[in-house]
Amino acid sequence: MRAGRRARRADVRAICPASVRAAIAAHVAADWPREACGLLAGRVRADGTVEIVSAHPAANLSAAADAFELDPAARLALQRALREAGEGLAVVGHYHSHPDAPAVPSARDRARAGEAGLVWLIAAAKEGRMTALEAYLAAPGPELAPLPLEGIAEA
Ligand SMILES: [Zn+2]
């Protein structure tokens, strides 16, 4: 670790409610076999834990079937809506799918992990069905560091 960089706490994790996981799985199925992508709204707790509250499907502007390009307008619109809602939520990350590929960052993903602090959720999918969901944290480097993803069932 480089001197001066804030130490990454070992207990930092992302928390993903079952409803968010289900929403991502539904989007992955709807866009199959193309990559699906969207934004994640939530909050970052004082201890660094990222609490994901909702998933927001966005248009994939990439012309390639195996890549994603989030619509920047979707992010601006969501940021504005969250600010206006006044509930302390912000855009904490985004998700995309890997059709017929594992839920690990591709070389392209790693090259584009420019915005430190953003959570990346990557969904592996097979035959339209989400088979795994993994979290990564974009850090200076750039790099995508694995982030423990904790599910919560909702009442
Ligand atoms: Zn990817």
Protein architecture, described:
By secondary structure, this protein is of the alpha/beta class. The chain is built from 3 helices and 8 strands; from the N terminus they run βαββαβαββββ. An 8-stranded mixed β-sheet has the order 7-6-5-4-2-3-1-8. The longest helix has 14 residues, at 18-31. The N and C termini lie far apart (41 Å).
CATH topology: Cytidine Deaminase, domain 2
The helicity comes to 10-25%
Distinct small molecules: zinc ion
The topology string of helices and strands comes to EHEEHEHEEEE
Low-confidence stretches: 1-5
Any idea what the radius of gyration is?
Answer: 15 Å
* Helix-and-strand structural type: alpha/beta
* CATH superfamily annotation: Cytidine Deaminase, domain 2
Morphology call: globular
